[in-house]
Specification:
Blueprint: H1 6-36, H2 44-48, H3 53-115, H4 119-139, E1 145-146, H5 147-165, E2 169-177, E3 183-184, H6 190-199, E4 208-217, E5 220-228, H7 242-254, E6 259-265, E7 269-277
Parallel strand pairs: 2-4
Antiparallel strand pairs: 1-3, 4-5, 5-7, 6-7
Helix pairs in contact: 1-3, 3-4, 3-7, 4-5, 5-6
């Protein structure tokens, strides 16, 4: 069936069904012969089924058919699960390849702009960026990482953004991690952070703000990210761009039934609340 050879499969299925029916008849006949020769006591159930061989053969076909359908169903289910897992792994790899270059492009662009204004600050920013790259290089292919490493990675990215913005932006962060040894999928949080800094309001009359709260207690991990926004600089589309859409896809794959994402937006505020049950 995987090779799309339907006719050989059907012919083989029919042949094996008939062979299995014949085998069942021979088994029954064998036990009947043993009973009639005194090896086993006579069984009324088997004794009463004594009829012509061809008639018994026809009567066994439905039983053989049900047995074969059961085995084929189990094999199809196993193969489907294998193919689905392979597809999800391929899709995850594709999504990862989208997340990392997206992050690197943004930060490198920040450094490029800053080098034209403040070389000392650009140098400090480049040093912080090296920690980000180191994490990406070493943890990129891992399915799970320590929560404390992922949080440290987020903190490094926030520091880069704070250096870039300077006094033009108010950034408030809260970190409450009970057990940093918990495991989490890497790079599923960073797009929410990037998104906030990318779309924060830029008004000369008032400072924009970004508030971030990371909490973990027991198996429950929560992330809250809120930023100011204005109607003069709306998001390209509700829910964010490529990075946020990619992260949403990854969450649906790696935490299909153990995460909840809520996005709340008004004319002046954009806020996301993410809950993940760690395991």
């Amino acid at each position: 069936m995987l090779k799309r050879k339907t006719v050989p499969f059907i012919l083989g299925f029919i042949g094996i069904t008939l062979a299995l029916a014949l085998m069942l008849v021979l088994v029954v006949k064998g036990f009947l012969w043993l009973e009639m020769n005194g090896v086993f006591p006579l069984s009324a159930l088997i004794y009463e089924t004594y009829t012509m061989l061809f008639r018994e053969f026809l009567g066994m076909i439905p039983s053989a058919l049900m047995m074969l359908l059961g085995f084929c169903g189990l094999e199809f289910f196993r193969e489907h699960a294998f193919q689905e897992k392979a597809h999800l792994e391929e899709q995850l790899l594709f999504l990862r390849n989208q997340v990392n270059p997206h992050m690197m492009f943004n930060v490198l662009n920040h450094i490029h702009i800053l080098m034209q204004k403040n070389m000392d600050l650009a140098s400090e920013l480049l040093t912080s960026f090296s920690d980000i790259l180191r994490y990406q290089l070493y943890e990129y292919n891992n399915d799970r990482v320590l929560l404390e490493k992922e949080v440290k990675y987020i903190q490094d990215v926030i520091e880069v953004e704070k250096l870039r913005w300077g006094n033009e932006l108010n950034v408030d962060c809260q970190w409450e991690v009970e057990n940093g040894k918990k495991m989490i999928t890497p790079f599923v949080l960073i797009s929410f952070i990037e998104n906030a800094f990318k779309h924060v309001s830029r008004m000369p009359s008032a400072k924009g703000y970004v508030n971030i709260a990371v909490r973990q207690k027991g198996d429950l991990f929560t992330l809250m990210v809120e930023n100011s926004k204005t109607t003069e600089s709306p998001r390209k589309k509700e829910g964010g761009g490529l990075g946020l859409a990619t992260t949403t896809q990854r969450l649906s794959i790696v935490y299909p039934d153990t995460h909840h994402l809520n996005i709340h937006t008004t004319d002046t505020v954009y806020r996301i609340n993410l809950e993940i049950k760690l395991y």
